[in-house]
Automatic annotation (TrEMBL):
InterPro entries per the UniProt record, alphabetical: DNA-bd_HTH_TetR-type_CS, Homeodomain-like_sf, HTH-type_TetR-like_transc_reg, HTH_TetR, Tet_transcr_reg_TetR-rel_C_sf
Organism: Cellulomonas fimi
Designated name of the protein: TetR/AcrR family transcriptional regulator
Stretches for region Disordered: 213-238
Comp. bias (Basic and acidic residues): 214-238
Length: 238
């Protein structure tokens, strides 16, 4: 059962220090090799102090996932609030996400552990991000900024793009785990290369285009692919 929130500012600081230390320990050694002793030593507090705030290792792990989720969502929301339209919001949001993952490598490491350690926390992380995405995409569709796409499908697709592009060009580049013929951004900047980012955004912009590519041709009221079929029919009749 989760503990009640601390009643004092000092208690809040101690709890936050424990969460921060747990994030570092889980990221460094993994959940199974982490221990409450390691967390408290890293935080500089006694073992008994831990149990004033958490029942055990799994509870603080869940709190770390929730804290990372809250921070990355805040970073993305803050970056997109002044965007003039949905496409620019995507651009700003992706930049903020990539920047956050560069500055907080624990995000990938811990969330991926959560799939096996705490499936509920794993689902919570992605679901909360998607919920905000769906809201923004729904509003953009209603205003005509994007095409007639399903906001839920689009939200999961966009999140998948961000997740894997960030892994490939931010985390792997930072770790030096790139193949010899690739050209990632400098490892000290840990940023998605400009040409890669532009290609990603071009793909997203086309995918969310206000005029979908598979809609009927406004000139003749037919689907573009119908032309070839009708030509074939006329040829056969001749």
């Amino acid at each position: 059962m989760p503990r009640a929130a601390p009643r004092t500012a000092r208690g809040n600081r101690t709890r936050a220090r424990l969460v921060e230390s747990a994030e570092q320990v889980f990221a460094d050694v993994g959940y199974h090799d982490a221990s409450i002793v390691k967390i408290t030593e890293h935080a500089g507090v006694g073992l008994g102090t831990f149990y004033l705030y958490f029942d055990g290792k799994l509870e603080i792990f869940d709190e770390v996932v929730e804290d990372l989720n809250r921070r990355v969502r805040h970073a993305m929301a803050e970056a997109t609030e002044a965007a003039p339209n949905r496409i620019e919001a995507e651009r700003a949001g992706f930049r903020a996400f990539f920047r956050f993952t560069a500055e907080h490598p624990a995000l990938y490491r811990i969330v991926r552990q959560a799939e096996f350690v705490s499936p509920a926390a794993f689902r919570m992380h992605y679901t909360r991000i998607v919920e905000g995405y769906i809201e923004g995409l729904t509003a953009a569709r209603a205003s005509g900024e994007i095409g007639d796409v399903d906001p839920t499908v689009a939200a999961w697709v966009l999140m998948g793009i961000g997740e894997l592009v960030g892994m490939r060009w931010v985390r792997w580049a930072a770790a030096g785990a790139m193949d010899s013929d690739s050209e990632p951004g400098p490892a000290d900047t840990m940023d998605v290369p400009p040409d890669v980012f532009d290609q990603v955004m071009g793909f997203i912009q086309r995918g969310l285009a206000a005029v979908a590519l598979d809609r009927q041709d406004p000139q003749d009221g037919h689907h573009p692919h119908d032309t070839d079929d009708r030509s074939d029919d006329r040829t056969e009749q001749t």
